[in-house]
Fold:
Amino acid sequence: MKSPEQQPNFLRPGHAACAGCGLAVGMRLVLQAMGPKTIAVIVPSCEGSIGGVYPNTAYGVPTIHSAFEIAAPTAAGIANALKIQGRHDIQALAFAGDGGTFDIGLAALSGVAKNNDDIIYVCLDNEGYMNTGIQVSSSTPSFAWTGTTPGGNPRRKKNIMEIMAAHYNPYSATATIGFPQDLQQKIIKAKRIRGTKFIHLLSPCPTGWRMPPELSADISVLAVETNVFPLYEIENGVRWTINYEPRGLPVEAYLLKQGRFKHLTSEQINQIQQDVNEEWARLNQRAGSSSSKDRTSRSTKGFKHGKK
Structure:
């Protein structure tokens, strides 16, 4: 099997993404790791627009454009049809944004995860409804400007990873374009697992985040290094593994490079820092607990009740 670097570019030149679009970079990396034996699902969002206008397409694998809220069940239908045909060499892949995942498509995704249908679902999270004018979503961070929250979003970002963990699906992971090797390794790992796999991919949007397009990769790295967006995996809903130990930079290093946060007060920045610290501590506790369980499991392997 070819490594991702040896695969052709399945998001071909000439697509219609904006300059510096983190979503386009993320899709290219994912498709490169998936390989040619992939059937992709996209929805009416940025990924629907950047592919181009029919009959032309920038996508280099068979791609089905579904309704906004049904990326997951559409991919599940493809996966089950392939299973009936005995085609176990082709993977069903769903792409959807945060609006189609955190909000409108959440019930459909939950149903697929409950059934443990054999798909890879990638949430391209640019933290807002960017394709329709930069409206707030439940993925929009606290105090962030959007077209519908001009004074700043009053609510915290929904924790989609905890929601997926509650389904006890076999594999979920966070990723970002600033760590491309980590992202592609997680896609390759997901391909080897049967059942519902979920990738939460932070995808910077220069237009919606009000920043220069050349900062997309750097801002993705800063999201990780400040603990705003840690890189970790959850297996079977119970085993949490942190994949990268960040430098723990202050959140200002991430926030103040984006125009959507330029209005923040010192009190708001302190509140975001406090929230980030609490989330990071909770993640470390879960990862530590998982490691402890693993050690206990290994130490009791072969141990029979009442005997050593």
Observations:
- Strands lie at 38-42, 63-65, 91-97, 120-125, 171-176, 197-202, 232-235, 239-242.
- Confidence is low (pLDDT under 50) at residues 295-308.
